[in-house]
Write a structure and sequence with these properties.
Elements: E1 20-22, H1 24-27, H2 33-46, E2 49-53, H3 59-73, H4 77-81, E3 93-95, H5 108-118, E4 124-128, H6 145-176, E5 193-199, E6 202-203, H7 204-208, E7 214-217, E8 223-228, E9 234-237, E10 244-246, E11 254-258, H8 260-265, E12 275-277, H9 291-299, E13 302-303, E14 306-312
Parallel strand pairs: 1-2
Antiparallel strand pairs: 2-11, 3-4, 4-5, 5-14, 6-13, 7-12, 8-11, 8-14, 9-10, 9-12
Helix pairs in contact: 2-6, 3-6
Amino acid sequence: MALSSTSPAPPTGPDLSIPLISLTPLITRSPLTISTAQSLLSALRSFGFIYLTDAPFSPSLISRVFSQSASFFARPQSQKDALAWTTPRANRGYVCIGREKVSQGATKEQVDVDRASGGDDLKESYEIGRDDDDEENLWPDKYDEQGADFRETMLDFFDQCKALHVVVMRGIALGLGFDEGYFDGYVSKGDNTLRLLHYPPVAKKDFKAGRVRAGEHSDYGTVTFLFQDKCGGLQVERPGGEGYVDVKPVEGAIVLNSGDLLARWSNDLIRSTMHRVVEPPRPDRGPTEGASEEREDEEEDVYPARYSVAYFCNPDFDRWIEALPVTYGGERGEKKYEGVD
């Protein structure tokens, strides 16, 4: 199948910029499956960010993930530090506030410049990988029964997100004109990362001074699933790089974005879009709400904590990734990238 140089615009979410797509036709084959797959690919080409609805997660599981994440970050600092992240290869464990600065800098010196100008990111995180790997996860189950429950919940959630990754990659395969299972052999092991994120309360003056909860960046894998609370603050760069738009929390929806490797794999047919976490948007006010409420808002000088959960998806680490043949040649232009593993 030859890919067209233009794609129809998919339906959009509440901010009129980010597409909203139901997963149901991708999970259960129906007459809408192919058109949904094409809308998915179109959205990844045009925006790189999507709201996904009708995901096969029970509300009770999502609730447990968020409550147990909050309980983990409320543990004594000494307990969290004993589970500290060690190496990029392992990519597991706890990352304290002040250790990380998300940046597009390619060298340590460039990252240091970003850190000096904007400070460290205002967040702490905890990373979980597949539990059947040579690298071991660092669990709090050695502390108490709550830690054991935490491990059970997060492994269950990890596996369900892994299965959703397969569903999404099958949708992309269909959108590209491949057989549904084209990518199955690339994503069978689940070499992915589940990241729990806690952004502590932040004074408004810190945001006004240029601090951010997470600096602008793109993700590095195939796709990322983001589950967020109601606090807001996530922004995505508009197509064309003309500023940022808020990714407002939508009840029951997952935010999906494509990463750098999927962009490379698709010879830049698919976008890997810059995003960041900044000062949350002010709540919308109705026309009858007066100046007294504005003064009250000004007096509230601290934003509350924000919690989110990101699942970063990758191809299996032992697979060779070469630009897909349908994405270059002829009107598509030349192949831009060499293969990578």
